[in-house]
Structure formats: structure tokens, C-alpha cells
């Protein structure tokens, strides 16, 4: 009797492997509107950095090499016009906090 063929494993989806919360979607939208030159992959890298993931963890989550993440981080820093002494992760955390704050503020009537 011949062995049964094994099913072909599915290729991993290269989109975001984690479930996006409403806050994550809001953050990505705000970031893409504020900085329209960011690519979809750069936006994903920004999201993971804002969650506190380091380069290796982000690379694993996005199925990329750590050197690719370093290159994306470099391009993101350039597109955000960050100075060399500015921390990208802190910038993204502050950006996210500011966006959340403005999201929940009630508009003032003139």
C-alpha cells in the first residue's frame, strides 16, 4: 500500500500576523495621512516598533530578515525627517499617544 500524499503547507500570509485593534488601525491611518510617503511595509514596521518590538522580533513577525528591517527603519527615519539623536521608537510612541489623545477629545464649538 502506497502512503497517502501529505497536503502542501500553505504559504504564510505576509500581511500583519497579529489582529489589528481599532487603535492600531487608527494609528496606521493617522501615520499614513501625516506621512503619505511611507510604504505599506514601512507602516507595518512602524506599528511593530510602536508596540515595543525590537528589530529581530519585527523581522520574525513580518517574515523578513533583520537587515531588511534595519533598512526600513533607516528609510522611515529619513521620511519622518528625524535627526540622528532622535529615537524612532520614542517618536512613534509619542505620535501614537498624541493621536489617541486628539481622537478622544471633544471638539470645541466656536
| Number of DSSP E strands | 0
- Report the CATH architecture of the domain at 37-103: Orthogonal Bundle
Secondary-structure element order, N to C: HHHHH
State the end-to-end CA separation.
82 Å
Going by CATH, the homologous superfamily of the domain at 37-103 would be Winged helix-like DNA-binding domain superfamily/Winged helix DNA-binding domain
Which range does the strand content fall in? Answer: under 5%
Summing up helix and strand content along with how strands pair, one would put the structural category as mainly alpha
CATH level-3 fold name of the domain at 37-103: Arc Repressor Mutant, subunit A
* Secondary structure tally, helices: 5
Low-confidence stretches: 6-15
Q: What's the gyration radius in Å?
A: 18 Å
- Kindly provide the name of the CATH class of the domain at 37-103: Mainly Alpha
Summarize the amount of helix as a percent range: 55-70%
Q: How is the quaternary structure best described?
A: single chain
Morphology call: globular
**Overall mean pLDDT:** 83
Largest sheet: none
Amino acid at each position: 500500500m502506497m502512503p497517502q500524499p501529505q497536503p502542501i503547507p500553505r504559504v504564510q500570509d505576509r500581511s500583519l500576523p497579529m489582529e489589528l485593534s481599532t487603535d492600531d488601525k487608527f494609528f496606521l491611518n493617522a501615520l499614513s495621512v501625516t506621512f503619505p510617503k511611507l510604504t505599506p511595509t514601512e507602516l507595518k514596521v512602524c506599528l511593530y516598533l510602536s508596540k515595543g518590538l525590537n528589530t529581530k522580533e519585527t523581522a520574525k513577525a513580518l517574515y523578513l530578515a533583520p537587515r531588511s528591517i534595519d533598512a526600513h527603519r533607516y528609510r522611515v527615519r529619513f521620511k519622518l525627517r528625524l535627526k540622528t539623536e532622535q529615537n524612532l521608537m520614542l517618536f512613534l510612541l509619542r505620535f501614537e499617544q498624541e493621536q489617541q489623545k486628539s481622537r478622544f477629545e471633544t471638539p470645541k464649538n466656536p
